[in-house]
Each structure stands twice: as structure tokens, then as C-alpha cells.
């Protein structure tokens, strides 16, 4: 019997690191390692329609014009939308700008339901605010139970934040969605959570970018990737973190797909939504003070050198198309 490649649905907000994640998934899709069945987008780094236009452009450049893209909800569940042009540029892709496009898939919830119906053990990867996931859970709780796995990039679990002293960007943008998800996720489908203290360790430097550019020589993505990442390098340098970039979402995809070694701890995660001072703060009850059912597999470490090698493998597969 020929093994069926895992079916992947990604909900993202491109975003520079989302861009690299989509490139990686495209490479694996072309190689038959996965089947990328759809991309939906949230409002986060930029507005939801712009993130969808960015995703559509990246997939088209990666020869995946047949993979559907649909914009999701246009604002967080209860708070006003805040975007981050200072981090990702005015249109989300640094110094690059996606062309005006027509998105043929406009119903993101239908896309999710059709993907669940068509693919046993569908894996969901969320690399932006969890707005769409929380809304889908509320409207279709039984359908969510059909996911084979859910992996999220978000939170700064018991760790310093990158948006406030205690909060990571994705959870801060829509704290009510993050809180709602973790309140509803036990014991149905435990979430694999890749939080900031892990993902900020995966760094692309100018030297590593040049290695990627050599692999992508002649590929359409090679024409924009320097412009995309240069903005991110400059942002991190302005933050005092050096001329390099933390690529949170690509690492999350590798972990979701089990392509590198990593360690997890089963725990209970919660997110503060109501406090203005602690908005988006995420906490893991590692000592079971709450006595609540576990709702997360918190990734505590990963093989970063293996992640860099897997990154190159994915981009090699992409370049072969």
C-alpha cells in the first residue's frame, strides 16, 4: 500500500516569516511529502485581504496556483485590529509588494469544512492570530474534533514578550481568540504550541540567506526574497537583536510535520484576555496548580541545526520545480 502524504491546511497572516513557511510547504508539496490542501488568512501583520493576496502571490510564484486561498475574519473577536507595518512593512512582505489579485475562494469556513470532509487526519497549522480557529470552534465544534492535529505558533509561555513585557504578538492581537481556544481545546485535540521562547531561536542571518539564494537561483521567489527579508533584518537590528531575523512560522511548520527532533511537555495553557496590562499573556501550569485537564503539548526545545538543514532541503525541493 502506498502511503498517503499528510494533508495540511495552514491559517496564516503573511507576514515575512509566513512567507518562508509557505515556500517550505510548497517545496514539500511538490516533492509529494505533504498535500497542501488550502491556505486561509487572518488579520494580523496586515489586514486579512492583504494577507490573502500575499499568500496567493507566494503560492503562484511557487507554482501552486491550484491551492485555494481564502481570507478569513477581518478583525479580532472583541478588540480593534492592530497591524504591524513597522515589523513586516506596509503590505506585509517587507520591501516587496504583491500585485493586485482576484481571490476566487471567499468562504474560508467552507474551505475548512471541505478539507476536513475530504482528508482524514487533516493537520491544521496556525501561524497568525487564532481568530479563525476560535470562530470555527464556536460555530462547528464537532467538525474541529475531526482534525488530526493542531499546531499553533503563539504566546510567550512563562517568558518575556515581544509586544508587551509579557505578551507575544499573535496572542496579543486577538487575546480573546487565544483564550477561547485553550478553554475549549481539552480534551478533544491537544494543541502543539510553539511559543516565542522556542521560535525566536531559529534565526536566518545574511549568510544563511545567501545559501538559500544559491539554491533558489532562477526560481521566481529568488527575485523577491532579498527584498522581503532585508526589511525583517533591519527591523531586528533596530530592536537591538542584530542584523538577522527570527523565523517563527517556518520552524513551527517543521515541528508540525515532525521533520526535526523536538521535545514537548503535556500541560495546561491559558491566556489573559481582559486585563489591559497583561493582555495576551500566556501561562502554562507546569505544576498543575489549577488541577485542570491538559490542553496543550508545549514544545520546550528543538534541534535548531537540524531545522536549518531541513530549511535547505525544503528550498532545494522548491527550486527543483
Key features of this structure:
Ribo_hydro-like; two-stranded antiparallel sheet; alpha/beta; hydrolase activity; 16% strand; IUNH; 321 residues; Inosine-uridine Nucleoside N-ribohydrolase, Chain A; eight-stranded mixed beta sheet; 12 strands
Would you give an account of this structure?
With 321 residues, the protein is of the alpha/beta class. It has one domain (7-306, 314-319): Ribonucleoside hydrolase-like (Inosine-uridine Nucleoside N-ribohydrolase, Chain A), CATH 3.90.245.10. It is built from 13 helices and 12 strands. Strands 3-2-1-4-5-6-12-9 form an 8-stranded mixed beta sheet, sandwiched between helices. A two-stranded antiparallel ribbon has the order 7-8. Strand 1, helix 1 and strand 2 (35-41) form a beta-alpha-beta unit. The protein is globular. It holds the Pfam family IU_nuc_hydro. It comes from Corynebacterium kefirresidentii. Keywords: Glycosidase, Hydrolase.
